[in-house]
Amino acid sequence: MMTTGINKTFYWAVQRDQESEKDNKYGGILLDWILTQVSCVEERNEVFWSDNQWFFWRERIEKGLLKSLGLDPMPPRTPLNVRCVGTVEREGYRIEKLILEPRPFFMVPAHLYVPQRATFPAPAIIYSVGHWMKYGKMEPDVQACCIGLVRLGFVVLVYDPIGQGERGCSFYEHGHRDLLLVGLSQEGLMVWESIRMIDYLLSRPEVDGNLIGMTGASGGGLNTLYTTAVDKRVTVAVPVCYVTSFSAFLKAMRGTNWNGGIDLCNQVPNVLEYGDMAALCALIAPRPLMIVGGTQDPQFPIEGTRWTFQKVQVIYGHFRATERVSLVEIDAGHGYIRPMREYAYAWFSRWLLGKECGVAVLENSVETKDPEREDFRCFPWNAPIVSGSLIARMVEDKRPGGDRFWRMVSREDTWLQERQEMLSRLQHVLNLRLPLGVPKVWKEAEFDDETMFVERMLMSP
């Protein structure tokens, strides 16, 4: 009799779950809660934009950002061990094929575009490649932008990010979740590589180290924004098809787990805790900043871009430098297409070359090469060099040593202090504000037969 009652109860519970799933009654609860929390944080962050409060909060945001990136403290600046493995001569410029080591044994292939006719030392620009995974620095639109810039008289450095181009075409290589367990982040690795690229540019006699620009689209726009925010040696920035409010981005990507949970450079821990996208952009002030967005971009909605720009304008106004920040809207989707590049050319020419060229500089016909041409490869063995095992070793090296930990906790005096510190850190990571209080509970349905009475309850923590 009891077994029959249990079976009936089980079938009743399964039916209720199936009905809820069919009606999608609760499928969006977690996502709704996340968006609510983001809205609350944005409302709290409104204090940044009023009554010159920015100057009070700026240092806190800078420190928080460095910590989130895993760059507090900064890694040691080890030798770059630069090797030039060949040169490609082209009309009006040359491309030096380089291999650099921003960290020991991290092999980074790069192309340095050097104009033949320019006033040296000349301004330099780092092009940060977005998520064009297969070809990286050889993606045709990336080539076109580098060619357009070097023709204007800029030295241009472009390199393959982790898991792209000659470093292996793999989102697995590009997104290492284990970094998060030891206070590091994928975006932090990418920002550090860009910082080391700046170090290299400053070593070149052709480069004016006081005039460094940076640009890139999508993930390259992200890298441009974060690198410029933490490294003031970047004097002009043009992030493309990335800047939008975090709430607009989350709504646009709702239900996709941030591109399936593999695009980890977008997931910078705790970044919303101390600021939003506008605050990150405002860290660049009063250095010249042009934000470029596509009005048809599905991932980075232009409405969020406009909202962010309005906030950033306020901060540039505090510096009396509103002419140094600009928003360009192009009727296009996601990418770095020719009209976007032409606006970037004019912005860089104005602030790095001192030339007033209007709002855009026309891009003359450029000849890009087949992305798979072997004579443009930096690794002479024609095989990718991935960084996954090196990143795993970094994580292992950051992990507290087992023997040291157990020796510390085996003593009562050190354990009590360590325990309290661990609990505090754990509450911070889990965002637990104790005491939690009493959850809200309500009854959705009930089941009653001869053997048992069951209630289906919902709880909101």
The number of helical elements comes to 16
- The strands making up the biggest β-sheet line up spatially as 1-2-3-5-4-6-7-8-9
> What fraction of residues sit in β-strands?
15-25%
At the first level of CATH, what is the class of the largest domain?
Alpha Beta
How many E-type strands? 11
CATH superfamily of the largest domain: Alpha/Beta hydrolase fold, catalytic domain
Instruction: Note the run of SSEs as H and E.
Output: HHHEEEEHEHHEHEHHHHEHEHHHHEE
What is the rounded Rg?
26 Å
Q: Average pLDDT across residues?
A: 87
Low-confidence stretches: none
CATH-defined architecture of the largest domain? 3-Layer(aba) Sandwich
Q: Can you tell me the CATH topology of the largest domain? A: Rossmann fold
> Shape from CA axes?
globular
Helix-strand category: alpha/beta
Distance between the termini: 37 Å
Give the number of domains: 2
Helix content: 40-55%
Taking the sheet with the most strands, its summary is: 9 strands, mixed
